[in-house]
Amino acid sequence: MKQREILNAAKEQAGMTQKEFARYFGIPLRTMENWFAEKREIPDYLLRLMLYRLEIEHKVSNLMQYVPFPEEKDENGK
Fold first, then answer.
1. Could you write out the three-class secondary structure of the chain?
2. Residue ranges of the chain with per-residue pLDDT less than 70
3. Looking at residue 59, what is its pLDDT?
4. C-alpha to C-alpha distance for 41 and 61, rounded to whole angstroms
5. Alpha carbon 19 to chain centroid, angstroms
């Protein structure tokens, strides 16, 4: 699932407009518009934090599974 699809699903499940979604997270509307238009990429950690907040506040469910987690490094940093 692409970031844009994840964002759209989260926004729709939360019942928000793009403007409300941006305000909810304290993110400039232009930045949010660029993410939805795929002009800019959202850092994975930020997308995970956004979804986590939505999930703990019971606004969305089952979207975290689509966000990749960073690979764990061994003791040698590889």
1. CCHHHHHHHHHHHHCCCHHHHHHHHCCCHHHHHHHHCCCCCCCHHHHHHHHHHHHHCCCCCCCHHHCCCCCCCCCCCC
2. 61, 64-78
3. 74
4. 22
5. 15
